[in-house]
Write a structure and sequence with these properties.
Rossmann fold, Glucose Oxidase, domain 1, 2 domains, eight-stranded mixed beta sheet, four-stranded mixed beta sheet, about 20% strand
Length: about 300
């Protein structure tokens, strides 16, 4: 476990480690200074970078879980050295501020997992934890459908609505809309051409969501996107203005298949997504007897 972003509270740390150890059967390693704090960071850049390099280079490590979000991961991007993760291959798991790390690693051709942070595992729903475990270990869950219907754990997830009907496949990229917009103009934002774009965010007012999406569009970053999936937009309403309405309007204007209400983001129901792998989006037209869904097609198992 590493803390590349904001500082983590010891209580949340222990709850998350207990889930990884007792429920997932993992041996969790941490540095003694993992709870370091320097203002809004989990210690100085040098500490966080050394911690990352140790985990990425460890021959026995098979997954790197990020402790929490906040801010700070972007400061490490120039020195991440993605090749360290290849021998043996390692999952990198996290979301929110970890979007910056996902983007850099996906750009380098690696598959990563947009999923619960250690600090959020203790409040993540059981269904979402089962899904993450199936995805991590490459063993799909039982054939019985999830409560939301449709797909066994580890094979995909179901949305709640269609923004624009259609079907498309591509490489899944994305995460926090805020982080993606802030990566514009840097060498670490992956090309979205041919991609399925996933978006989620927290505590951003509708006009800010508009600004971020407009920035991505005007920069050309969204050119060639094949489909869009929208996850949780937590705390993104402002009175009668709803963040979901703003995002829906701008996504629809892209003219590609799009679904919303994917159970991924800043909510307890945070289903893991294999960024950098090939997925399919099903956005049914009215009357079609299938739910909107994101299906994981290939490249989802670390071997």
């Amino acid at each position: 476990m590493v803390a590349p972003s904001g500082p983590i509270e010891p209580e949340a740390l222990e709850r998350g480690i207990a889930v990884l150890r007792d429920e997932f059967g993992l041996e969790v390693r941490t540095r003694s200074d993992v709870t370091a704090r320097q203002r809004y960071l989990a210690g100085e850049d040098a500490r966080r970078l050394e911690e990352w390099r140790e985990a990425a280079s460890d021959l026995e490590t098979r997954a790197i879980f990020c402790a929490r979000g906040g801010y700070g991961a972007m400061r490490l991007l120039p020195r991440l050295e993605p090749a360290r993760l290849l021998h043996p291959p390692k999952w990198v798991v996290g979301f929110s501020d970890t979007t910056a790390i996902h983007a850099a690693l996906n750009r380098a051709g690696l598959v990563t997992i947009h999923g619960p942070l250690v600090s959020t595992l203790g409040r993540t729903t059981q269904e979402a934890r089962d899904h993450l475990k199936a995805l991590l270990f490459g063993r799909p869950g039982p054939a019985a459908p999830l409560p939301r219907g449709g797909l066994p754990p580890g094979l995909g997830c179901i949305g709640s609505g269609v923004i624009r009907p259609g079907r498309a496949s591509g490489t899944l990229l994305g995460g926090s809309l805020t982080l993606l917009a802030h990566l514009c103009g840097t060498p670490w934002l992956p090309s979205m051409a041919g991609a399925v774009l996933f978006l989620e965010d927290v505590d951003e007012k509708p006009y800010r969501l508009d600004r971020y999406l407009t920035q991505l569009r005007l920069s050309g970053a969204l050119d060639g996107v094949r489909a869009v999936c929208v996850g949780h937009l937590t705390g993104c309403d402002d009175g009668e203005q709803r963040g979901a309405d703003t995002v829906r309007e701008l996504v629809r204007a892209l003219g590609v298949p799009a679904i919303e209400g994917l159970p991924a983001g800043h909510e307890p129901e945070n289903f893991a997504l294999p960024l950098g792998s090939v997925v399919a989006v099903v956005a049914p037209a009215p009357g079609e007897p299938v739910p909107p869904q994101l299906v994981f097609e290939q490249g989802t198992v670390a071997t």
